[in-house]
Amino acid sequence: MRLLVRHRLRRTRREGYVDRSELLEADEIRIGRGSDVELHLSDGRVLLHHATLSIRDGVLRVEALDNAEIELDGVPSRAVDLTPGHTVAVGPYDLVCGDPSPDCDAAIGIELTRPMGDAEETLRTRVRTTLLARRRSGWKIGGAIALVLLLIGVGIPLGTFLGPADAPKPVEQNAGTPSNTDFLRLAETMWVTEGLSNVHADLEAGCQACHVTPFAAVAETTCAACHNTLTAHVDPHASFSANVDLSGGCASCHQEHKGPKGITPGVEITEAGCISCHTGDIDPGDGRALARVASIADHPQIDLPAAPLSGLIFSHASHLIPQGKRSPDGTRKVLGCVDCHQSANEGQDMTLPSFADGCVSCHTLTFAAEEPDRRLPHGSVTKLRSFVGDFYEAVARGDIQAPEQPEPPRRRRPGQAAEPEPIAPPKPVPAHILAERALSGPAVKGQCATCHTLDEGVAAADWSIVPVKAVEDWFSAARFDHDDHKKDAQCSTCHAVTKSEKAEDVSMPSIGTCLDCHGSAADFPDVDSTCVTCHSCHGRTEQAAGISAPAWFAEKRQPENEASEELAEILRNARF
Question: What's the whole-model pTM score?
Fold first, then answer.
């Protein structure tokens, strides 16, 4: 069964609503608060395993599990068959059946309509006067408790300030032994927290957005309700030789109420913390092997993949000669890296060169004397063959006339007359013969072979171009920004391309080049570097999958853009 789920979240200071959607796949989808269910509802009033969703005879059915209840229109039920528009109560949540799209078996919407705040207010109303209203003994007990609390909370601080000035000094305590003043200070600040970080500033007035369960730490699933496209840094199946405690979930690294930037991990996490794990043996849980890193200065060498056959014939060295490359007009131009590689993503990346933006300035692709300004299209061979055939058919029809060439001067030998000799005009050549000659000769094939590897066919004109394969990102597991380096480095500082003779040459820097400037934050104050300077902890699923991606997503992973487009199309077709 494939189910589209749309969560309606209340996340803003003005109590606005935000929708989050996810796709779930399973034969039977479990609903509950447990970590092993497919549809997780974080409210404490939902049981760990509360209900199940399944398709029975083409109809979506919700069934309550043992010791759990669901309600249809206020009537408790054990099992309900849903049709579009039906609303079923699962604890404090309302589950609304929607119209499925062609790509899903069913669609539902979920909203927390009875938040904990309402239940808490009801509970306070019930117990507000029961202790003191009925019996005289209740008044006595309540008064005694109030008196004790008053003496502790008010008497001791007043005694500290109103005591005699010549009172004996307290006995000097050992380091680490708490005094009465320490206890009082702790009691005073126990319920006082610093403000939220900048990224969570809009939640100042709504503590319940994160603290769903009173007096309980914020659950990881609550973080995932908003940050639903991130994956965890550590796989659940990973193992460490060191004693690593990540039981705190997101809060192990991201701690709130630490000031405006407190949510951002400090050096003790982003550097010392990373190294404390990566000094030992690590099994990521997915079959890979991670190298040990004892410090940033002892970072292992960068292991780059083998360069694929690009299908291109290109030499950086021949294009970057000091005297410059000769252009079609006969002049020489000294080329640099920026003539082919342009800045992209606000300076973070550099683009791969394209024919239209760079190569065409020298490789004009003119090919026929009949029309010297006509250029070959740069694209598929099928398009090229059609273009050449159409061109020579137009020549054969007379639609294209070759420019007249001046007659060469005639010379006569001494003692002979320079009489013109009649020359018969050449016989017209069929268009398909002219096209075949061009496609098999230097006019077309020769120009393509200058930069592309060709697959030869049986006939001279029967050839194709090997597909071009270029590596977009060599450092896929790292983060790098060209814009941050352009002031202090040149392209040749990191890329030794002046000696590159083939397109497959990997002209990427070694880790030693990076360590010339980067190192531990304590040793390199000018270039403040930690592990997260170059490495990102969280990956993106581009699916509303939460911190731990569900099993169906891991098994049927799709390209990010394709998966996102599929989810967007499903949401457009679904109605709730």
Answer: 0.53
pLDDT digits (tens, 9 = 90+) for 30-39: 999 888 899 9
Average the pLDDT over 416-433 and give the result: 76
pLDDT at 176 over 80: no
Residue pointed to by tokens 């206890």? 183
Angle at 449 between CA 447 and CA 450, to 5 degrees: 65
Q: What is the DSSP letter of 239?
A: E
Question: Residue type at 434?
Answer: L
Task: Please compute, for residue 306, the number of CA atoms within 13 A of its CA located in the half-sphere on the CB side.
Answer: 2
DSSP string, 292-355: P-S-STTPPPP-PPPPPP-SB---HHHHS-TT-EEPTTS-EE---GGGT--EETTTTEEPPP-T
Structure-block tokens of residue 275: 């190294």
What is the strand order of the sheet 2-10 is part of?
A: 17-25, 2-10, 106-112, 93-98, 87-90, 70-72, 75-77
Token readout for 524 is: 């390199």
Amino acid letter, residue 259: G
Give start and end residues of each alpha helix (H) in 468-510: 491-494
Structure tokens at 350: 């550099």
366 band by pLDDT with thresholds 50, 70 and 90: very high
DSSP 120: H
Do 332 and 323 form a contact (C-beta atoms < 8 A)?
A: yes
Domains belonging to the chain, first-starting first, are 2-122 (2.60.200.20), 198-300+539-570 (no CATH)
pLDDT at residue number 464: 94
